[in-house]
TrEMBL record:
This is Arabinose isomerase. Residues 177-315 form the L-arabinose isomerase central domain. Pfam families: AraA_central, AraA_N, Arabinose_Iso_C. GO terms for biological process: L-arabinose catabolic process to D-xylulose 5-phosphate. Residues 17-169 form the L-arabinose isomerase N-terminal domain. It comes from Halostreptopolyspora alba. Keywords: Arabinose catabolism, Carbohydrate metabolism, Isomerase, Manganese, Metal-binding. The lineage of its organism: Bacteria, Bacillati, Actinomycetota, Actinomycetes, Streptosporangiales.
Length: 465
């Protein structure tokens, strides 16, 4: 899902006041907008709209952007432009916005004439336009930089990825197979408030539908998946053909139902599967491989965490579902793991990902094939979405390091040890004070700044611990 670049529209704003003074100024500044777009090659796919010189222009260009299913709008002042011509557009805009406070030339020089002054006077148009967005209550990002610089590219890329995640959430559907785990309070929320405030919609999928879909799958699809696994993973010889075929049918069945329901994220709960009576095992390896394909996932019917993994995919790629399992004071780290689900794309490069036969008493079913790996050492970021009541949400984020740590031979599920930059004492004190949940998305890399942009675009309170 994140193999392609975010797609953003460049909204260049000016006015016809200067046409008589500088003939050809519209074409001249349109070429500048195109150069800005070209400079962003590799961080975003840019669609450059015609210069906006009045309200009709603005409304037409923005409609074109929305009809093209872009991820966000990058506003560039081509000259000063009075904000009342775009006020209504921003009030009604459905896409995330970034105001690029830039100008064609980085330096004022003695050689400048009035033409140069006019070409480079976007700063006060940016002030007028930003004021209009603030009055309209529109959340937006601001980037003041030299546009040919690498820093500008990086900041626009960060915003564009945040815009993609925010836009994807507005149409996200999260499938829940069965029901959520009883008594798990930090995953509870008001579904209508989530949909109004952020966009994700909850879709209930009956476990019986999964059973029927599994039974209807052609043997050729099941065999093809098993052959692919043979090539990609180190497969445990103790796994029987029946165990592997049943797991493959579960994975393919889940994905088919998610496609039919338009869901890009989902959650299963072991009790909902176990109590149904029609399943032999839990879909552990299925969750790992579907995350690796770009689906959001969380265990125990946790919609908020599944939506976060989906956002992690859109924001940075390879969102990994996990939780803080235990504290290791000697290494000042947290053992990160879950019952058996984890995105194998975050696995170490120097060890094979293993598909193992794994005894598991939870669910009271037969052994579920499980993908086992250790998380790649290096920088990483944890993020949790907290429902505060009503339409208020908070994101708790921690940056740190996945350690090149000890092996845990008895732990037959994906794992790694994460050392927060603030240490486990400081990190956990702040995490708990802010209501951070126990289901978490992990991404490789330092991404607190990316999550901050995402929160600004969606209206989520951001807390880094």
């Amino acid at each position: 899902m994140t193999d392609t670049l975010p797609r953003v529209g460049i909204l260049g704003i000016m006015q016809p006041l200067y046409d008589d003074m500088i003939p050809g100024i519209t074409e001249h500044q349109a070429a500048y907008a195109r150069r800005v777009a070209e400079s962003l090659d590799g961080v975003a796919e840019c669609v450059t709209g015609a210069p906006v010189r009045g309200r009709d222009d603005a409304e037409r260009v923005v409609r074109e952007f929305e009809d093209a299913d872009l991820d966000g709008v990058l506003v560039v002042m081509l000259t000063y432009g009075p904000s009342l011509r775009v006020t209504r557009v921003f009030h009604e805009l459905r896409l995330p916005v970034c105001l690029a406070n830039i100008q064609p030339d980085p330096a004022v020089t003695p050689e400048w004439d009035m033409d140069d002054m006019t070409y480079n006077q976007g700063i006060h148009g940016a002030q007028d336009t930003a004021n209009a967005m603030v009055r309209a209550g529109v959340p937006f990002e601001v980037i003041t930089e030299e546009w040919p610089s690498e820093v500008f590219r990086q900041r626009v890329g960060r915003w564009a990825r945040g815009a993609r995640a925010a836009t994807a959430w507005k149409r996200l559907r999260v499938g829940v197979f069965g029901y959520a785990m009883n008594g798990m309070g930090d995953a509870r929320f008001d579904e209508t408030a989530l949909m109004r405030a952020l966009g994700p919609e909850v879709v209930a999928i009956a476990p019986g539908a999964l059973r029927r879909t599994m039974d209807e799958l052609p043997t050729s699809e099941v065999s093809a998946l098993m052959r692919w696994e043979d090539e990609r993973f180190e497969v445990d010889g103790r796994l029987s053909e029946k165990e592997r075929e049943d797991h493959a049918r579960m994975q393919l069945g889940i994905e088919r139902l998610l496609t039919e329901h338009g869901c890009r994220a989902y959650s299963t709960h072991f009790d909902a599967i176990g109590e149904d009576g029609r399943f032999d095992r839990l879909p552990m390896a299925a969750a790992s491989s579907l995350m690796a394909k770009g689906y959001g996932f969380a265990g125990e019917g946790d919609v908020l965490a599944a939506a976060m993994v989906h956002a992690g995919h859109q924001l940075a790629g390879d969102g990994h579902f996990t939780e803080m399992y235990a504290m290791d004071y000697p290494s000042d780290s947290l053992l990160m793991s879950h019952m058996g689900e984890g995105n194998w794309r975050v696995a170490r490069d120097d060890e094979p990902v293993r598909l193992i036969k794994r005894p598991l008493a939870i669910g009271n079913l037969d052994d579920p094939p499980t993908l086992l790996f250790r998380i790649k050492p290096g920088r990483a970021t944890l993020a949790s979405l907290v429902a505060l009541g009503g339409e208020r949400f908070r994101m708790v984020v921690a940056e740190g390091e996945v350690l090149d740590s000890q092996r845990l031979p008895a732990l037959e599920m994906p794992y790694g040890q994460f050392r927060p930059d603030s240490g486990i004492r400081g990190c956990m004190d702040a995490w708990l004070r802010n209501g951070g949940t126990h289901h978490i998305v992990m991404n490789l890399g330092s991404l607190a700044a990316d999550w901050r942009v995402f929160c600004e675009l969606t209206g989520i309170e951001f807390v880094q611990v």
